[in-house]
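About this split. The held-out portion is used to measure sequence recovery: a designer receives only the structure tokens and must propose an amino acid at every position. Recovery is the fraction of positions where the proposal matches the reference. Here is one held-out target exactly as it appears in the evaluation file.
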């Protein structure tokens, strides 16, 4: 049996990054930047006011206080979006709005709240230092600066920055298209009545959602019966239109598992037994240069194996540099024991208080009990054979 880390490393070593493409910035959310982005202009492009108030000559503001106010003449009103015309001399001020261009001669802004104005006169009750309340040309980003590097995940703030830099398109790694096929004669599509012995196909929906959450496009290819010809046809068709294929079910030691036979025909597929609970049986390999992930059929195993193996692989394909979610220590709120010879990823509720994380399991942990995941917001990792008492710490991880 392989450890989780060994299996994951072997898998990741075979994954290659997809080609890049140019996309409109609003389509780039959740994708990964494939270029270094430099500033073609200064941000902000001109000195401007950080406040609504009065642009003044700071030399007029020395020792100004409530007891010793100063009176200045208002020579201009400057609105955001317009260029000032006056040159501010000592004894004068310009009424100025937030974001409006600083007028020549002025070197500070007094906020409106400490002033009283009447007609063309303003009385100021608090002094300011030179440069106070002024935003300088290029103070956010200077022309020529490297602003964002290749490999960066694009979030809303990156999209706002592209727009600031007048970039309507950026080069990104292509989002992986990932096909999903469920296998099993017992699976019944939604909406149809359940005949004796049948169950709902939940994995396909869960996997498609996990694919989307990883920033990829799911392609739902439906259900393949436990029939070799049908399964082979579906798998080949699915692989044709996608960058990767995920199958669900049939990789264990069951009698009617045609999945293993078919996967072996498609390419170099390894059937791994990974020393983990849930999710011991898995298949992984490459066909036509595309990764194929054979997930176990048990619903919990399917979601957990995706989280620990498929997600990092898809992230790598999509150009991400951060592949794994961070782990941290959490204090156990109950006694936990794992009598198995495999590390256990127990579905848990993780909370934080007083600067510490705490974890308790979500109850019965059978690999068919999907509800254990619905109640959970993360895992705790319990080593093989370990019994850990309440109050001790364990390794924990949040999940999507
Ligand atoms: P298998 O890995 O095909 O032997 O299936 C293991 C268990 O998972 C069985 O109880 C199956 O009925 C169940 N199972 C397989 N595929 C799915 C699926 N798509 N949705 C929900 N349960 C499934
Ligand atoms: Mg099956």
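Reference sequence for scoring:
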């Amino acid at each position: 049996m392989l450890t989780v880390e060994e299996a994951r490393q072997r898998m990741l070593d075979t994954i290659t990054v997809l080609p890049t493409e140019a996309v409109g910035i609003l389509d780039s959310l959740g994708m990964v930047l494939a270029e270094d982005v430099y500033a073609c202009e200064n941000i902000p492009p001109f000195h401007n006011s950080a406040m609504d108030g009065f642009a003044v000559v700071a030399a007029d503001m020395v020792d100004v206080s409530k007891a010793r106010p100063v009176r200045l003449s208002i020579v201009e009103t400057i609105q955001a979006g317009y260029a000032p015309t006056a040159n501010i001399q000592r004894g004068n001020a310009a009424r100025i709005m937030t974001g409006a261009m600083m007028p020549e001669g002025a070197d500070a802004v007094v906020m409106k709240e400490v002033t009283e104005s009447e007609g063309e006169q303003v009385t100021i009750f608090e002094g300011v230092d030179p440069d106070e309340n002024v935003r300088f040309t290029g103070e956010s980003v200077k022309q020529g600066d490297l602003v964002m590097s290749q490999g960066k995940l694009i979030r809303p703030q990156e999209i706002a920055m592209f727009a600031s830099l007048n970039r309507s398109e950026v080069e990104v790694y292509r989002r992986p298209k990932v096909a999903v096929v469920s296998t099993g004669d017992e699976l019944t599509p939604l909406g149809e009545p359940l005949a004796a012995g049948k169950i709902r196909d939940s994995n396909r929906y869960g996997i498609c959602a996990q694919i989307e959450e990883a920033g990829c496009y799911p392609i739902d290819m439906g259900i393949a019966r436990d029939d070799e010809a049908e399964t082979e046809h579906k798998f080949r068709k699915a692989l044709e239109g996608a960058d990767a294929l995920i199958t669900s079910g049939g990789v264990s030691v069951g009698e009617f598992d045609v999945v293993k036979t078919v996967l072996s025909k498609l390419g170099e597929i390894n059937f791994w037994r990974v020393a983990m609970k849930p999710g011991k049986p898995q298949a992984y390999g490459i066909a036509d240069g595309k990764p194929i992930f054979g997930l176990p059929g048990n619903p919990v195993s399917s979601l957990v194996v995706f989280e620990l193996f498929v997600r990092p692989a898809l992230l790598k394909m999509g150009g991400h540099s951060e592949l794994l979610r961070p782990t941290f220590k959490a204090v156990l709120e109950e006694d936990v024991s794992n009598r198995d010879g495999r590390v256990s990823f127990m579905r848990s509720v993780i909370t934080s208080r007083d600067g510490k994380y705490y974890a308790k399991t979500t109850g019965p942990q059978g690999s068919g009990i999907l509800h254990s995941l619905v109640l959970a917001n993360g895992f705790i990792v319990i080593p093989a054979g370990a019994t850990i008492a309440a109050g001790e710490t364990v390794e924990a991880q949040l999940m999507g």
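Annotator remark: The CA atoms of residues 273 and 281 lie 5 Å apart.
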